[in-house]
Amino acid sequence: EPEVTQTPSHQVTQMGQEVILRCVPISNHLYFYWYRQILGQKVEFLVSFYNNEISEKSEIFDDQFSVERPDGSNFTLKIRSTKLEDSAMYFCASGEEGMETQYFGPGTRLLVL
Amino acid sequence: QKEVEQNSGPLSVPEGAIASLNCTYSDRGSQSFFWYRQYSGKSPELIMSIYSNGDKEDGRFTAQLNKASQYVSLLIRDSQPSDSANYLCAVTPYGNNRLAFGKGNQVVVIP
């Protein structure tokens, strides 16, 4: 069964460093999303991406964040200058055209020191 | 007002019993409703989607939607220890394609 994959599974970085989280969505899906979950808290929406552009973003997704689909398979989230409060689990999700169901990848656990 | 609320504390049920979970949402225009299961340290896993009022059954799971009262519920029949997880209610607000999640209901099935 097709699934969303994410790399790396864990990332430790120093405050102020740039990180890039990578995702490979399900191949025939056209909608891509990033969510995050701080430990013990709810899953929060960051950004959605369709047709090579951001379709919606939350207040969390400020100028420090960016997304890119560099090729036909990868979808990336970049955090330019990480802060301690960026420590969280980051989930990528994808969905088919015309369907609202979203399928989640296994996540990347980011720890900012 | 929170977009999606799941107010119940941890739910302990004996193996074989029915677990009942509830969720309310604030956006009356919401169209799509989902239940995800999340094991500790893992990603959300889709269990059910429901789009119209009434019940929808899938195996041991039944989702119920009442748009007039703005609530969604999930019943787990014949609960198994493997059902022990955090159950997340998620809603697609009107005009959006993002998911708004509740904090979840922790279910513990006792053998």
Protein described:
The complex is a heterodimer of chains A (113) and B (111). Chain A is mainly beta and 113 residues long. Helix content of chain A is 0%, strand content 50%. Chain A contains no helices and 11 strands. Chain A has strands at 5-7, 10-13, 19-24, 31-37, 43-50, 53-57, 65-68, 75-79, 88-95, 103-104, 108-112. In chain A, strands 2, 4, 5, 6, 9, 10 and 11 form a 7-stranded mixed beta sheet that branches. In chain A, strands 1-3-8-7 form a 4-stranded antiparallel beta sheet, with no helix packed on it. In chain A, a hairpin with a 5-residue loop joins β4 and β5. Chain A is globular. The termini of chain A are far apart. The model of chain A has no long low-confidence stretch (mean pLDDT 95). With 111 residues, chain B is mainly β. In chain B, 0% of the residues lie in helices and 53% in strands. Chain B contains no helices and 11 strands. In chain B, strands 2, 4, 5, 9, 10 and 11 form a 6-stranded mixed beta sheet that branches. Chain B has a 5-stranded antiparallel beta sheet with strand order 1-3-8-7-6, with no helix packed on it. In chain B, β9 and β10 (100-101) form a beta hairpin. Classes of the chains: A mainly beta (113), B mainly beta (111). Chain A binds chain B through residues 31, 33, 35, 41-45, 48, 50, 55-56, 58, 89, 91, 93, 95, 100-107, and chain B through 31-32, 34, 36, 42-46, 49, 88, 90, 92, 96-104.
